[in-house]
Amino acid sequence: MDAVQDFAKDIEAYLSWCEDLEAQVHAHAQGCGLNRSRWFYSERLNVYTRCGWSYLPSGPATSVVLANIEVAEAYQGRGLVARLLDRLEGSEVKLRAQFVVVEQVLNPRFAQALARRGYVARTPMEGAPTLFRARTL
């Protein structure tokens, strides 16, 4: 299996897992602002994710938050995170989230890549910014 097929398998597993996590929020929240957080683990990708509500400059909004993204060293720089974000930002994923948020981006090159994708800093770009972008619904 080549890297693209490996990535597709991990991404599909993550998205299915994320849909389940978000469904737990909506099953219990009844609009009260509940969040659910969990780690997703695979051979190539580990992501700490929170589904629920984020407080953005425009006010509270439903979101999926990637708070810690770890890519196995052998797969770094090969587009796994870009492919994941492509899918997560799109309308074909069955999420209710209005926004994708990436918290505490420590790598300046990653912060710049997110900005090129249309992400906006919720916090100042100095230090470890949190960036967000509206999903295509």
Element-by-element helix/strand order: HEEEHEHEE
Radius of gyration: 14 Å
Unreliable runs, pLDDT <50, ≥5 residues? none
Largest sheet: 6 strands, mixed
Helix/sheet category: alpha+beta
The total count of strands amounts to 6
Order of strands in the sheet with the most strands? 1-2-3-4-6-5
Tally of DSSP helical segments: 3
| Termini gap | 32 Å
Helix amount, in percent? 25-40%
Content of β-strand: 25-35%
Shape: globular
Mean pLDDT: 85
Detailed description of the structure:
This protein has about 140 residues and is α+β, with helices and mostly antiparallel strands. The protein is built from three helices and six strands; from the N terminus they run αβββαβαββ. It has helices at about 5-30, 80-90, 110-115, and strands at about 35-40, 45-55, 60-70, 100, 120, 130-135. Strands 1-2-3-4-6-5 form a six-stranded mixed β-sheet. The longest helix has 27 residues, at about 5-30. The protein is globular. It starts with a helix and ends with a strand. The mean pLDDT is about 85.
